[in-house]
Amino acid sequence: MNYEVADKAIRAMNRENLKTFGRMKARLMKADELHIIREVTDTYNAILGLAKRWLLEAARQAYMQGVRDAKKRHRCDIDLEWLLYWMEETADPVTLYKFIPEWERKKARLIEALPVAPDRGKEIDKALKSWARQIGQAAISVTDEATLEAYRDVGVEYVQWVSEHDDRVCGVCEDMDGNIYPIDAVPVKPHWNCRCRLRPVIK
Predict the structure, then answer these.
(1) Crossing angle, helix 4-28 and helix 120-153, to 10 degrees?
(2) Helices and strands of the chain, counted as H and E runs
């Protein structure tokens, strides 16, 4: 399990989202409520489409890496249907929210806030930061989920928790470093943006 593809996805989404939110901001500085609804809806549809594309790529690459890590061969079954189910039905174990319902909540909140916001630009910037935080965590979570699915598909029964060995690792993660868990009893990551990996234990 590694996060190179997830990091690439996060960078690409953040670049595009910055442009998309910038265009929305330029159009909405003095717009009426009807235009706000349309612009925010169009913007949030665009960023969701971008997220689907990049998160699917991250999940597929993570799955194939998981198969290779286990020294096995297996066809990747991760497709858009798999991703949509994950986005709509699977609660992130760290944040405890589902991706699509949270996207809808963020969109509705911005539509509600903009007409009465004293500074629309700041409100849009705040929405962009909130979205960046969501897609950053989502890229990590979808990578973890796809990797575990690969391990299960090729018969891995145990995994080892591997923490980053740097000065940013938290005490909880450091204590878990090297621990071995049954694949269906892996502890939930203790915080947002946790980069601890799970390595297959190959007998």
Answers:
(1) 160
(2) 6, 3
- Environment class of residue 74 by beta-carbon count within 10 Å: exposed (0-12), middle (13-18) or buried (19+)? middle
CA-CA-CA-CA dihedral for 49, 61, 136, 189, to nearest 10: 130
Taken as a whole, the chain contains a residue count of 203
Q: How far apart are CA 201 and CA 50, in angstroms?
A: 35
Give this prediction's pTM: 0.92
181: β partners: 159
Would you put residue 119 in left (φ > 0), alpha (ψ -120 to 50) or beta? beta
Question: How many other β-carbons are positioned within 10 Å of the β-carbon of residue 114?
Answer: 21
Q: Using alpha carbons, list the distances in angstroms from residue 163 to 17, 169, 179.
A: 30, 7, 10
120, containing H or E segment: helix 120-153
Dig out the tokens for 58 from the structure. 């991250």
In tens, the pLDDT along 124-158 reads 999 999 999 999 999 999 999 999 999 999 999 99
Q: Mean pLDDT score of the chain, rounded to an integer?
A: 93
Q: Please, what sign has the CA dihedral across residues 17, 3, 142, 164?
A: negative
Report the SS3 class of residue 180.
strand
